Amino acid sequence: MAHKNESNWSPYKAQTNKPHKATSGHSHRHRKPVETYDFHEADDRIYDVFRNHGFGDFTHEKRHTLTRFCQLLMASQHEQNLTRLLSLRDVTIKHFIDSLMVLRLTKLSFPLIDVGTGPGFPGIPLKIALPNETIILAEGVQRRVEFLKRVRTDLDLHKLPIIGRNVNSEFFYPVNGVITRAVEDARNTLGNVVNCLQTGGRVYLMKGPNCTPEISMALDKWGEYFALDKDISYELPNTPHERRLLIFRKLKSHPLPDFAELDLVWERQLGRDVE
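RESULT FIELD:
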């Protein structure tokens, strides 16, 4: 999910829902799924999509967990807008396969934080695929945080901390990898994670095909601290959907603020944010 960190409204706690002024039309109505299936039919349909799009070797047990995740996502969509994708096929291709493709393109570094995960992409499909690795979900909107907690409990997922806040330069939770399906400019993402990513760690930016201008801007701003390791162009198998995976490596530490202030930040983060 794209990192929605434009305002950093609350630096330490997830943003609570605020009432919106009424607008004309139906822009604030919940967009409901176009179809619903019981578990067995949904699982069969996801298997067919996986088989037709290069993921027929994905294990049955892990696919069953993805099916349950899909059902939770669609059930919650009746109450809140968590995704713009409303068909099972679209969710399977553009959420599940899109998330899992990263594992075919590179080796991830852990612990890995999914920045601006939204309803759990790519973090939850990656966690299902890699149950023994620590993947951290960071999300700044409270209703999504509550959904993520429910998913973690219902799917019995472990080593999956959930951090209810936006990630910015005052975020110091140490990780070796950062991943995001990034609508946010790469320059901003590197700046937001410069103090939590450890030296030698990787930033994995899941981008659309036209992200070339972002690379030079990101390196102009952060070239002292980051280098571009890989720029991988690819398509989701048997679809016209083009993607780019940008991988940046952190070269050295960024100067830290006053340590007295840093201790207070750590106390707040470890005491209140992580659940």
